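S.,

As promised, the coenzyme A run. Input:
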Amino acid sequence: MPRRTDPVVPVGCLGNADQPAISAGDLLLRPWARTDADTLLAAFSDPAIQHWHARTVDSRPEAVALIGSYQQAWREETAAQWAVAEPGGEVTGRIALRAIDLVQGCAEVAYWVLPAARGRGIAATATKAVSGWAFGIGLHRLELDHSVANLASCRVAEKAGFAYEGTKRGAALHTDGWHDMHLHARISGDA
Ligand SMILES: CC(C)(COP(=O)(O)OP(=O)(O)OC[C@H]1O[C@@H](n2cnc3c(N)ncnc32)[C@H](O)[C@@H]1OP(=O)(O)O)[C@@H](O)C(=O)NCCC(=O)NCCS
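Predicted complex:
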């Protein structure tokens, strides 16, 4: 069926090109490579990342497969996943746009940071940089949600300019049960 409105971002504009790297101050957001498998494995052994993320990664082959799925999602224009690399090249975090909908012009932001690198502003810096990139390609609205119990993530959202829009009741199932979720969002043109 024809649509009354054109796609907000032309379909094919992501997947037909290589995923770019993005500068974020001293940090570099770059596509994941198979050689990052051990970093992913370490990340998913962290109890906090296990708590707040539904996925498990228990072996190197699973980590390699996950990186392959990131690369496929880029080609399919459904998600964009970046490793967050420090000036020396060490990967200390992950920033992502999930649920990309080019037709509607929206996506969801997701992140984690390795325990030893937390509290240095990495998540907020990466979120701001990826938001700038997303609005630059023409996306209109970015959402960010987190459990009401995840206070650090709420702070990241605030620092990255994602306004609080409301609380979704019983919206995410974690291993300890259903969590109410804060919805934050930033739209193109927000300060
Ligand atoms: C949430 C997470 C990504 C934050 O990464 P980070 O790089 O440390 O984030 P930043 O340094 O940019 O900001 C963290 C903010 O949260 C605050 N914070 C940290 N722990 C907190 C807590 N228990 N209560 C309240 N605020 C807290 C910090 O003080 C900081 O705010 P400030 O700069 O105003 O002092 C990281 O803690 C993490 O990976 N946690 C586990 C996985 C996760 O929660 N992922 C997100 C799921 S929605």
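The chain has a mean pLDDT of 97. Residues 169 and 180 are 4 Å apart (CA to CA).

- D.
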